[in-house]
Amino acid sequence: MENSMGVGLLAVCAVSGSVALIALQVQKRLLSDFMKKIESELQGLGTSQKYKTKKKVQFAEDVIEPSSNNREYRRSKCQAKTDQGFDMPANRQVLYKGLVQHRMHRGCSAL
User: Fold this and answer.
1) Which keywords does the record carry (predicted)?
2) C-alpha distances in angstroms, 62 versus 31, 58, 59?
3) Per-domain residue ranges for the chain?
4) Which of 8, 66, 99, 109 could, after both became Cys, cross-link 73 (CB 3.0–4.6 A)?
């Protein structure tokens, strides 16, 4: 009886030891995978912020560069917008023209 209890105790120690070793290896592997993922995310954020290229603005060739007096340029643009022709009924044309003139007057009054 003592012999069978000793064998049982030895089996329990062997099984529990192997379970403990397996759990330790799984924990190490999960921790290392997690740390690699965290490091890659942190490095990805650092490199994207560090080496981010600045966007360059390119204007079209037909863009008119205003003269040194920007007020005259803006006034001419505002005037050109109010003088546009309309392809709509007369009553709507009058209403729309009044709205546009009001907006242009409000926007161009700061000049």
Assistant:
1) Membrane, Transmembrane, Transmembrane helix
2) 60, 12, 8
3) 1-46, 71-108
4) 66
Instruction: Please indicate, yes or no, whether the overall pTM of this predicted structure exceeds 0.70.
Output: no
pLDDT in tens, 4-36: 888 889 999 999 999 999 999 999 988 888 888
Contact 111, 75 (CB under 8 A): yes
Spatial CB neighbours of 66, under 8 Å, sequence gap ≥ 6? 73, 74
Helices (H), the chain: 2-50, 70-82, 90-108
Residues ≥6 apart with Cβ < 8 Å to 9? none
